[in-house]
Amino acid sequence: MEFHYRTCNLCEAMCGLKISHENHQIIKIEGDKEDVFSRGHICPKAFALKDIYEDPDRLKFPLKKTSEGWETISWEEAYKLASEKIKDTQEKYGRDAVGLYHGNPTIHNLGTNLFGPDFFKILRTKNFFTATSTDQLPHHFASWLMYGHPMLLPVPDIDHTDYMLIIGGNPLASNGSMMSVPDVAHRLEAIKSREGKYVVLDPRKTETAKHANEHLFIKPESDAWFLMAFAKEIIKIKTDCKLPDYVEGLVEFSKIAKEFDTKSIEQITGISQANVTRLAKEFCDAESAVCYGRIGVSTQQYGGLCLWLINVINIISGNLDKKGGAMFTLPAIDFVGPAKPKERYDRWRSRVSDLPEFLGELPVSVMAEEILTPGEGQIKMMITNCGNPVLSTPNGAQLEKALESLDFMISFDIYLNETTKHADLILPPATGVECAHYDLTFHNLAVRNTTKYSPPLFNKAEGAKYDYEIFQELKNVHLGTEEAIITPEQKLDLGLRYGPYKLSINPLIESVHGIDLGPLKPMLPERLKQNINLVPELFVKDLERLKSDAKNLMNMEEFSLIGRRNLRDNNSWMHNSDKLLKGKNRCTVWMHPEDAKTLNLQDNELVNVRSSVGQICLEVEISDEIMPGVVSIPHGYGHNRKGTKMKIAEAHAGVSINDITEEKRIDKLTGNSAFNGVRVRISKN
């Protein structure tokens, strides 16, 4: 028996694993108790690494669609076909006729993360879309406007805080998100054990809320109102507030907050003014405190305002860059480094809906219309990379029709799924335990500064290709060059040597449990790219939209739809694992008993859930853990579409919530999709 140590790459937590193996077989996967970051913690998703490695449905060689079905072809033929189709399309219709989509797994795969951009940049298309605008784009938008860089993302110093306010986040199910935090359950419990407190605001009594000191129901999409009222109370309490010289706009923000009418706060949010005042006092009285918001606040119509106000709250309460507050990381490979502030917004716009780009990408909500709408600049060819947007983007049924209409489509993926089945060419890389790994992004979001490299456990299949090989070889074919193939280790070594700790790859290879670089430390103003701006003009102007929509937030004639995550789910791409999917049906619609009684519904009864764009049918699950007027459906299901090859996923198909989410429903400021708060009607099947 041999042992292999690596970091799990299936979510953001970066848990260290100890894998027992023999004769090219995984015998056991357990938490690495010596890992410097995760401390032996492991979640159920890690066990799926074995399922993925052994999965007979996993693709390993290029597939070409023919009139007779799918045909396995050589890598040389695949590269030639891909390059020819790209060149033909761009020569005939222009550069922007090729569209690109990057899915969530892109960031979890080292070779794709390092070498994918080098290939995609040479295509020079403005029709670039990623999962960012279905997820965390408001976080980056707020950091860019306030701190000068989209990756200057404050992280809760959870290990030292005395008070944590969690709004729209469920770290016990997500293992943290935009906050890499393994063993989060024990870390949250530690807050209580040192006589601190953590409070959860959510329309559902989530797994995290059940263990919190306090949970308050809040109406979907009303969070910005609560946060403004909360900030208003902090200003009342902190009358002698003195902020560092590098913080600008306190007087202006104080004026905005005082004049913001929050008299109807309870009617809008469901939270009384008395509770707002009490929570603000508790927050300010704590030795250290931090406000943290996630999916519930970022994937809604006011996501940008929410993330702005969360930052403001941490700043004006004196908890930014403070032990136990919101702090910045200093990773061994630093995305921020010496970068200078630059324009990253509205440099071009989408052709049909005239929406601005941010960070070089357009909102994913316009992807289907850019394919379906004729005219100059229409997308004629799509390239999808590590993604399943048919299930993960709004109005997936519309996108499915759009993909079917393309002249040609290429997918980089390991599965024949609901999206890649529309492709004409699939290029599957080696994956999981066959690959080296380093978390470039999540070390930038970690609650402690550490660094760790994971070598491959097993060799890839004979004739298979690593993702870094595919992108470099395809680039050579496309450009007619013969550049030598660079390995991820070579790039990592360079990044480490130029990083703040002046490391190299060799110490990381030798340190199988990782290297501890210490707790988060105060580092402002040196880490900033500009003085902190409390009142960016774009946010201040957007408050008028929030005010004008107040009546709509109070109108609850229809049900308000929110998502739901289970610890064993990881979007749509982990549903072909028997270990993760076993157990009772999780794809149900949660409804409060009072609402079920009004509609004369019984537990497990089939219901139709209808929105302005579609209808789905699924079982109702009656629970008092969701507030009246709100219903919840999990994300990532809908494996009932023909033409896929994912046997286990198909056996637990469920339905896709994104067949009823609306592509036109976005945060108008940032362009992020507004999944939460979609109005739906429910009836018996």
TrEMBL record:
Residues 1-57 form the 4Fe-4S Mo/W bis-MGD-type domain. Coiled coil: none annotated. PROSITE patterns: 4FE4S_MOW_BIS_MGD. Keywords: Iron, Iron-sulfur, Metal-binding. Belongs to the prokaryotic molybdopterin-containing oxidoreductase family. PANTHER family: ASSIMILATORY NITRATE REDUCTASE CATALYTIC SUBUNIT, TRIMETHYLAMINE-N-OXIDE REDUCTASE. This is Molybdopterin-dependent oxidoreductase. The lineage of its organism: Bacteria, Pseudomonadati, Bacteroidota, Cytophagia, Cytophagales.
